[in-house]
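A further point concerns the way the authors explain their paired sequence and structure data. Since the whole study asks how a given chain folds, the encoding of that fold should be made plain. A single example would do more here than another paragraph of explanation. An entry of this sort, consisting of the sequence and the corresponding backbone structure tokens, reads as follows:

_____
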Amino acid sequence: MIYNVTLNTVTKGIALYNSRINELLTNCFGYEPSFATLETCEILIMGCEERHYGENCTSCDSKCLDRQCDAFDGSCIYGCHNSLMIAPGCNVCKGLLYGENCTEPCGHCFNGSQCDMTGVCLKGCEHQWGGPLCDVCSGGFYGPNCTLQCGQCKNGSYCNVTTGICEEGCQDNWRGDKCDECAVGFHGPKCTGQCGFCKIGTTCNNETFVCPDGCQEHWVWPLCEDCEAGYYGSNCLQQCGKCMKVEDCNSGSGICVSDCQHGWGGNKCDVCAHGFYGTNCDKSCGHCALNVYCNKGTGVCSNGCEDHWDGQRCDVCKEGFYGSTCTHQCGNCKLKTTCNKVTGVCQDGCQEKWDGSKCEECVEGRYGKACEFACGKCKIGDSCNRQNGSCPSGCQTHFSGPRCDACEMGYYGRNCTKTCGACTGKVCSRLSGECFKGCKDTFSGAKCDKQVVSFEYMKGEMDSGSIGGIIAAVLIVVIGVVIVLVYIYFRRRHSEPNDPSRTYEENIEPDTTPQEPDTTPHEPDTTQDGAETTPHEPDTTPDEAETPAPEQIETKNE
């Protein structure tokens, strides 16, 4: 016998074991039957040598630890040669590092997120940082941590991000390498010390530089040299964005030196942050597909919606679903209608056989996953369980089984009102009354409802010389023949023809296992009274009495 053992790692040994469950009976001398015998003829070990893998035994990559790799696909399952990389691929750096050897630290990525192997911050940069690697100051800032604001560089240009020097010179009234000092003859925070923006047609006091009649719009009195909180620019006419605090807006550039208010983004906090839209950026995007953000002005999802969501903004449930997450499927609402997309209520009612405000449960008298089954003969006034059809309070008279869909032992017929004949074991067909296991002594027929008079009995009477017995036997035979002929006559007149398309189930012990719904379309009974789980047809003969009545006396040849 040949056994193949496949390993994807290097092993240093092979152990073979054998065991015997039952002792081997033998007369051989010296054989211990409690032990099993294992004879090994040949062991063939196939595979690559250490540090190789695959069908062609390719050398493991040097990026794997000790050049050890998976014997099949060559992945570095034992770790990476560079401990700063992540196994088994050994092509991604651990932590916030990047570079060929994972020795370079990532820049100031947004919220401390990871950069890729080239150092690019895939989710953008922290505030005041810029560049693809987020390792340089954004416009208007400089210094080791980009926390220092540039001075009044000429024409709105930005200073050197390292030194803060305005390489193109300063704006009017400013001087110094960083343009952070007032030029001669000017004063004030903005070096506008000559006269501020006094009201048009007025001027400032020559000594105090105060504008006695007030300032132009959006300037601060008394010198009218500073922008009113919330405005910026050379004329203080530009409104600041949604900085967390109004005083955090730079009066010259409009840049927010702190974070933005909820829903806003950008250096000036004047555009909607990702995931928000609207005039005030106070509306959250819907459930756009592929994690794409919606249009910041309209909220429209250009790439469609996630599953179960609908609408241009993907903010309403698709037809047939409801709930806050649109994951709940509508019930069996009336055809061509759907449920409320918030509550799931079927406002126009349910399909046939369904009930409840959401049409998720069977109507009374039916059960099953699709409400496809009618309840059995539960006690009058009681209904079956709507999931498994069981009758919690028991069955009507002569019915049995957990679903009350079988006749009690000894009864048969559509309503289980007919008594079985003289069957062996009192077991007869559920619908036809036929006896499966034969008849008791002196009875015959399919239903064991015909009494038998044996010739052996008549012969015994004759041998004993009893003339009276012979006469009695003959009379019994004649009377029996007459009864049979009369019965056949009336039966043919009043019986109904059998429908050969009907099928019948047998009266066997009730099935106590839960009934699985039939997935084949059919039309079950729709009322509780007389409901059956299988189609059937009433017997065509009149109801018999509770005990089998002889219909025919037969003679039986031994």
Notes: Residues 494-558 have pLDDT under 50 and may be disordered. Residues 467-494 form the longest helix (28 residues). DSSP finds two helices and 33 strands in the chain.
